[in-house]
Design goal:
This protein is α+β, with helices and mostly antiparallel strands. It contains four helices and seven strands; from the N terminus they run E-E-H-E-E-E-H-H-H-E-E.
Amino acid sequence: MAELYEVKYRGINLYSYEMTKQEAQHAECLRQKAIQICSKFEVPEMELFDGNNRLSRFEDYYDFKIKYINEIGYCVLTGERGRLSFLEGFPTKVFSEALVWLLRTELSSVGVKIELRKRRELSEEWERLYKTRYDSRKYRFEYILSVIYRALNKHCDVLIKKYTDLLNINFNYEYWGYNKSTLTFEPLNAF
């Protein structure tokens, strides 16, 4: 059984790995860029269950760590109750990839919360526009992709494909496609 608070990669326990000063600067640069983007695009802070805001967005704590290791690249470790693993998309040596995957996680949580607040309005609009059951993920996926596009000024084709596949999973054919000019998912017969 794996130890708690341990993520092994190439023989290194990344959780307890002490970064050099230069490595810590790389990790901090990623964190600060993500914070800057969330601030610029007014991504709301997530609230904890007791209604209070987290201490700080992207802050290292026992079940979330942003690290950089020269031999491996950027690593974001996350988990619950001491059972940790890599955040999807990690490790990577490419800063822009690390930024996209880090933002995706934050934006996904925020997108769920926003969709829940607007669900009645969104589901009424859905009934007028689409001939299928309401899928709350559509709004979240659009939110993630639009903020990433506006922040980086380019589309993230990996996420577009992933989210298109997820939206189409309950169909026997490709129902949804992503319209890059409107930054929305639309029925394929619509464009």
